[in-house]
Each structure stands twice: as C-alpha cells, then as structure tokens.
C-alpha cells in the first residue's frame, strides 16, 4: 500500500535515492505518504451511481411509494379513529395491560394537543420509522441467525457492524441523498445503517445464549437444523430478539430526527425550524412531541416483549 | 454382535487435534499434551462393546471423559479418530440426513440438567421426539400420555417444566426418552442433579421400567453406588482412559488398579451386591445343606436378606420371579463377598 501511495502521489521526490540522502521527510509527515483512498472512493461512488442508478431508482420508487401510500392512508383517517386504533393495538399487544394502555393513550392524545400541526408530522415520522424498522427486521434477523450458526459469518460481519455503529451518521446521510434523492428514502436508508446493528447483535446473542443442553436435546432427538431453529432456538431467543427490536425502534426514532437535516419531513423538522429561528419554545415543544412518540413506540414494543417472555419463560411456580 | 461397539476412539479438544493425535497415540500423558500443545485429551484409546438389553454404566470423576464418550454414540461429538458402530452400522459414515434419521429412530437421550424445553408443556416435551419425526398431534399426544402415566406424572401434562420439582422434571426427561420407543437409551448423569431420596426413587423406577422394556441403556454417573446398583457391566474411566470394564462384582472384588481400589474402598457391599451375583448355581450346589433354607429373590441385595439369614443361621435358596430355584448362597459366599480385600 505504501508503494501504491508512493507511485501515485504527485508530491513524490525525483527518485527513491533522495530519501536516503535527505532526511528532512522524517520531520513532518511527508505529503507523498498518502493513501489515495479519497479519489478511489469518489470514482467508485460515481461509478455506482452511473451504472446501478436504475437499481437505486427502483428501491427508491418502491420505498417512496410504500411511504406515500401509508402516510396518505393514515393522514386521511379522522384523528379519533387513528387514536383509538393505536390505543387498541397497544391494549392487545401488551396482553391487555391497562396501565401501559392508559399511558400510551395519554401520550397519543398529547401529540395533537401540544400543537395540531404535530399530528400529521408525527404520522410522517411514524411511517418512516415503521418502514425503516421493517427493513431492519427483514434483513437483521436472518443475518443474526446466520451469525449465530456460523462462526466464519460472524467474524466477517462483526467488523461491518462495528463500522456501521462508529461511522458518524452524516457520512452516510449525505451519500444517501446522492443515491436516493431528498426526502423520506435516504432517512430510511440512514435508519437502516444506524439501527440494524443492535438488532443483529441481539439476535445473534440471543440464539447463542439458548441453553446448550436444550439445543443438544433437540439434536439428540433428531431435530433437523430447521426444526431446531424454529422449534427451539428462535422461541427461546425471542426475549432477546424483542429487546433488539426495541433498541432498533428507539434508534430509528433518533435517526429520523437527525434526518430532518437532509430534508426529511416529519416532527424532526419542527425542532430544526425552531432552532433556526431561535424559537426555543417551538423547539422544546417539538422535542416533547418526539419524547411522547418515543414513549409510545417503546411501551408498545417493550410490553409485547414482556408478554412473550411471560409466555416462553413461565416463571410461575406451583406450590407442590 | 454387540449392540454398540466402540473401537480405539480418541478425542482431542483443541484447534488442531489431528496434529496432536500421533503424540497421544505414542502414549503421551494428558498433562504432557496440555503443556506442550494446549490440547486437552477427552478420550484416549477407548474400546468397549455393549450388548443388547444390558445396562452399561460408565463411571468416572468429572473430567474423566464420560460425557464425551456418551456423546460419541449418537455423534453429538465426532471422534478425532476411531470407530463407533451401532447395530453394525458405522456411525461415522452417516451423512447429515442419515444421522438425523438414526437419532430419531435408534436412540434417545436423558440429560443431567434435564434439557427440557422451557417453552413447551410437559405433554409437548414428551412428544418432542415424535414431533420431529413428523407425527400428527393426536397420535403423538396419545403416546406421550402413555409415557407420562408410565413415569407417574398424570395430571401434570399441561404444566411447564419450571413449574415442576427437579425429580418430576427428570421424569419428564425420562418419559421423553421413552416416547420414541428406541432400543437404546443414553443417560448422561441423569440422576446426578437430584437429591438422594429422589435419586434412589428414580433408580428404582428405571430398574422397574428396564425389567419390562429390556432396552440397551448406557448410563453415565460419578456415583459408584449408583453404578453398582444399576449396571450389568461397568466401565471405569480415568483421565480419558478406560481403566476397567467388568460386572459390579468384578469391580469390587478385583479392582484393576489403585484408582479403582480407592473408588471401591468405601462401598457398602451389602447394599450393592445382588443375590444372583454371589450365588452358587443350582447345578454346582450338591454339597449345600438344604435342611434350613431362606427363600431369596435373585434381584434382592444382600442387606435385604442378611438379617434373616443370620437370625436363622440358615442358607439361602435363590429363586427367580417365577419361583424356579436358581442357586444357593451359604455363609462361605456371604463371607467372601462382604470381606474387604
């Protein structure tokens, strides 16, 4: 790599022998010792857009269509009906838990009550988060399963996850615009990059944490790989996977707010607008709305996880 | 032909077991191998054969390789070298599909910490082996209920495993192993996690079931009393090596080395030796005084009939379940079996 950097650099000295007579290059980092990653990546990215543009266009149209239909449907519904559906969803998903339901009902009501503008904006945000999460689930859970089954796959994917989690979000928000244009789709893309790693990790961990003896028992009775996975590993890993889904939701919501900076419509742009106008009240109000939305998402996914956990890990002990 | 045949099996745990194998074959000890290569010897040249219908107990302290050994029989672990054959088929030659079929129909397993599925009811747990075979729910529930009754757990079929006590959980494990009706049962320290009272209960239940079903059982334990009580043959493992194989009496009377001697030193012999083991067969018992006889079942342990014999100063007549005379026990035999060597 050093040789490549040297030969391609325009700052390199006349000949290599100069380096052994003049040692001034040992002082500051020499300009010729520079890996030409940037032009390489730029070329690659250009080529990607030129040659696979149609492919990204296809993804873009599909996701945008999905988003628009979903949004239009929900915005078209009268608000009391939507509110009641969310509350009903929460009630059944949480296993008829009244406390959680009342809390969620309160939050849903307050979204519109804070400012009537927020209602539709929250719907937009919700649609983006839901689509982003679906994408995470469809891709994240199978990848997690593959990782848990195969050590080589895990070793290959772990560094990618590390990269996804540590690279600053703006580094893929902006290229997201180049690939998918402005609006909802780059936000969905950013959500995917940002929120899928914890889901993958927790799926992988959940499956590997299933009691070894229980898995061995399934094997000893002649369960095929498929039977082992669906009958034993996934059900027992479900509490962990649900934890991952919950994490994924929270991170999606965080990202959708940041994504308002690349022109994604939703509750996040209210915060941005407030800050741009130095209207602290407006920004805070929008901030509260985001918190309420987060509570709704969190409570619904969390209570579903708890319900599943209660079912699969029956902790009730009978007195015998 | 033996039901299960294990030939020269080596198992080495580590990154490159095949490189360490020649060293182990040349007779390096466990400690040497661990120090030089970082590999652990699981099994070191183990060969044994298990006959149809017998209970073979494999005994050793923890780390002696007994759990590794039992997992070679249904190939949950692959040997580094050697051959395992069951009913004449070499288990190592099975491909993935055949292996699954083999595990479904040839053998079942009971685990130390039960290995029950916490998200399934007792009924579903017991029917699991049939479920993976693809049986319909009605059919498998019927079989499962029979087995639940056989282990005395009726009424608990819709409970979840962690609602049951340890002993009951292991009965579920036993019922699950019985449900697939395989010839061979592997029991990996099946009763070790149970408290002593329940353990002897379960041993009794296993012996009762076995006297009816006549399965080939491979039983792993670290408890000598248990192995003497259950085993038709006992194999003693030490550090991955099989140090002695024999009947319970062989093990007690003629321990092969210091390790086995230390093991059998504190055994209460009266508690583990059965009448049929020490009796003189009826055909050789011409000189026995038959005027004063106590009738003894062939499966009774010495301690069960000893007081009677001493009080009456009598000899024993050993009979089987049908009442046929199998042999005789005189003071001489009793003395020989109870004296510590």
Biggest β-sheet description of chain B: 6 strands, mixed
Shape of chain A: globular
CATH H-level name of the largest domain in chain B... which superfamily?
Answer: P-loop containing nucleotide triphosphate hydrolases
Most extensive interface? A-B, 26 and 35 residues
- From the 3D structure, determine the CATH topology of chain A: MetI-like fold
Number of E-type strands of chain A:
0
Please indicate the percent range of residues of chain B in DSSP E strands (runs of 2 or more): 15-25%
Describe the protein's architecture and organization.
- The complex is a heterodimer of chains A (320) and B (341).
- Chain A has 320 residues and is mainly alpha-helical.
- Chain A has one domain (54-312): Orthogonal Bundle (MetI-like fold).
- Helices cover 81% and strands 0% of the residues of chain A.
- Chain A contains 13 helices and no strands.
- Chain A has helices spanning 2-8, 16-21, 37-76, 79-93, 98-114, 116-149, 151-166, 170-180, 184-209, 212-220, 225-258, 267-276, 280-312.
- The longest helix of chain A is centred in the first third of the chain and has 40 residues, at 37-76.
- The radius of gyration of chain A is 25 Å and the shape is globular.
- The termini of chain A are far apart.
- By secondary structure, chain B is α/β, with parallel strands linked by helices.
- Chain B folds into two domains: 4-106 and 182-267, Rossmann fold, CATH 3.40.50; 272-338, CBS domain Like (Alpha-Beta Complex), CATH 3.90.1280.20.
- In chain B, a hairpin with a 2-residue loop joins β9 and β10 (241-246).
- Chain B is globular and about 65 Å long.
- The mean pLDDT of chain B is 88.
- The A-B interface holds A 211, 213-214, 216-224, 227, 231-232, 235-236, 311-318, 320 and B 74, 76, 100-105, 107-109, 111-119, 128-129, 131-133, 159-160, 162-165, 168, 176, 180, 186.
């Amino acid at each position: 790599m050093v040789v490549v950097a040297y030969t391609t650099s325009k700052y390199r000295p006349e000949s290599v022998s100069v380096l052994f007579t003049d040692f001034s290059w040992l002082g500051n980092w020499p300009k010729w010792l520079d890996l030409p990653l940037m032009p390489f990546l730029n070329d690659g990215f250009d080529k990607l857009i030129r040659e696979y543009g149609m492919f990204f266009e296809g993804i873009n149209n599909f996701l945008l269509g999905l988003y628009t239909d979903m949004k239009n449907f929900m915005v078209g519904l009268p608000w009391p009906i939507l509110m009641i559906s969310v509350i009903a969803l929460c009630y059944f998903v949480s296993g008829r838990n009244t406390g959680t339901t009342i809390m969620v009902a309160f939050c849903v009501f307050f979204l519109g009550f804070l400012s009537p503008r927020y209602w539709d904006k929250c719907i937009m945000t919700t649609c983006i988060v839901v689509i982003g999460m679906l994408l995470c689930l469809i891709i994240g859970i199978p990848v997690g399963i593959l990782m848990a089954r195969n050590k080589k796959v895990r070793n290959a994917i772990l560094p990618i996850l590390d990269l996804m989690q540590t690279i600053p979000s703006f580094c893929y928000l902006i290229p997201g615009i180049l690939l998918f244009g402005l609006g909802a789709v780059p936000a969905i893309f950013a959500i995917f990059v940002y929120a899928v790693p914890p889901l993958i990790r927790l799926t992988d961990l959940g499956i590997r944490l299933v009691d070894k003896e229980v898995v061995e028992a399934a094997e000893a009775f002649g369960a095929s790989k498929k039977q082992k996975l669906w009958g034993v590993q996934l059900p027992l890993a479900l509490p962990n996977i649900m934890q991952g889904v919950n994490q994924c939701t929270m991170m999606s919501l965080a990202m959708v707010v940041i994504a308002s900076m690349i022109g994604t419509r939703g509750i996040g742009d209210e915060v941005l607008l407030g800050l741009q106008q130095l209207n602290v009240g407006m920004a805070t109000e929008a901030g509260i709305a985001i918190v309420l939305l987060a509570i709704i998402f969190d409570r619904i996914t969390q209570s579903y996880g708890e319900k599943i956990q209660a079912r699969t890990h029956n902790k009730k002990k009978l007195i015998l | 032909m033996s039901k299960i045949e294990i030939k020269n099996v080596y198992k080495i745990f580590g990154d490159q077991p095949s490189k360490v194998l020649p060293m182990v074959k040349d007779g390096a000890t466990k400690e040497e191998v661990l120090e030089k290569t970082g590999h652990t010897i699981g099994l070191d040249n183990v060969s044994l054969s298990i006959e149809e219908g017998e209970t073979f107990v494999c005994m050793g302290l923890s780390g002696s390789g007994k759990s590794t050994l039992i997992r070679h029989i249904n190939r949950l672990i692959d040997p580094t070298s050697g051959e395992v054959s069951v009913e004449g088929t070499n288990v190592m030659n099975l491909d993935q599909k055949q292996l699954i079929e083999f595990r479904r129909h040839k053998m079942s397993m009971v685990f130390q910490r039960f290995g029950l599925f916490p998200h399934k009811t007792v009924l579903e747990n017991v029917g699991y082996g049939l479920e993976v075979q693809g049986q319909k729910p009605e059919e498998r529930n019927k079989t499962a209920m029979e087995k639940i009754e056989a282990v005395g757990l009726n009424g608990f079929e819709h409970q979840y495993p962690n609602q049951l006590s340890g002993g009951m959980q292991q009965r579920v494990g036993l019922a699950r192993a019985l449900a697939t009706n395989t010839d061979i049962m592997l029991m990996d320290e099946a009763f070790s996690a149970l408290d002593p009272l329940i353990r002897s209960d379960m041993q009794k239940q296993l012996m009762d079931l076995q006297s009816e079903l006549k399965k080939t059982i491979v039983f792993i334990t670290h408890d000598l009393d248990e192995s003497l009580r259950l085993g038709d043959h006992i194999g003693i493992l030490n550090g991955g090596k099989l140090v002695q194989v024999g009947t319970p009496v062989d093990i007690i009377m003629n321990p092969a080395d210091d390790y086995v001697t230390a093991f059998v030193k504190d055994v209460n012999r009266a508690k583990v030796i059965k009448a049929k083991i020490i009796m003189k067969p009826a055909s050789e018992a011409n000189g026995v005084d038959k005027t004063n006889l106590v009738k003894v079942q062939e499966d009774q342990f010495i301690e069960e009939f000893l007081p009677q014999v001493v009080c009456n100063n009598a000899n024993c007549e050993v009979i089987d379940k049908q009442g046929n005379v199998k042999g005789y026990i005189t003071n001489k035999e009793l003395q020989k079996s109870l004296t510590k060597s």
